[in-house]
């Protein structure tokens, strides 16, 4: 009877270690808990357009404009079926505040391994410090329709432009 217990105990210990490792990962991002506030879609769109005008790179990824905001920026990010806008180019090791607003239905922003639930009309603010290099995906983790699996945004970490 004890012989059968050892493999089960070993498997359980391995699963617990793996789960702990996965829960501690944030995809290289240092992310602080989100705060929230009520937001009007029209006003938020204006802030989004101002960001594009001030810090747009002239490039796009799958039709989503790319911005390269300065460190410490507040970045209004529109979340709607089936996109996160804008795509971001961030400086390594710098801190930013993402203001995420779901425009049409409930979404969720999984940034690295952290996740924030997004309800229409409520902006969620996520403070993050960019990793030293690489690309981190932003993905919707709340089913929002047939295009849900393609709802992926981008954070590209790159040294100054």
From TrEMBL:
Annotated GO CC locations: membrane
Cytochrome oxidase subunit II copper A binding domain residues: 68-161
UniProt-recorded Gene Ontology molecular function terms: copper ion binding; cytochrome-c oxidase activity
Xref: PROSITE patterns: COX2_CUA
Name this protein carries in UniProt: Heme/copper-type cytochrome/quinol oxidase
Taxonomic superkingdom: Bacteria
């Amino acid at each position: 009877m004890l012989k059968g217990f050892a493999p089960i105990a070993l498997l359980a210990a391995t699963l617990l270690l793996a789960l702990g490792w996965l829960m501690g990962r944030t995809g290289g991002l240092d992310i602080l808990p989100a705060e929230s506030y009520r937001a009007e879609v029209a006003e938020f769109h204006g802030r989004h357009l101002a960001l594009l005008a001030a810090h747009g790179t002239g490039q796009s990824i799958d039709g989503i404009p790319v911005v390269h905001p300065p460190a410490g920026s507040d970045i209004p990010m529109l979340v709607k079926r089936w996109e996160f806008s804008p795509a971001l180019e961030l400086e390594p090791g710098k801190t930013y505040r993402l203001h995420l607003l779901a425009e049409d239905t409930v979404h969720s922003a999984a940034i690295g391994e952290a996740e924030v639930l997004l309800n229409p009309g409520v902006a969620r603010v996520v403070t993050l410090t960019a990793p030293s290099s690489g690309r981190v995906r932003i993905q919707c983790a709340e089913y929002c329709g047939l295009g849900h699996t393609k709802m992926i945004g981008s954070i590209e970490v790159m040294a100054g432009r």
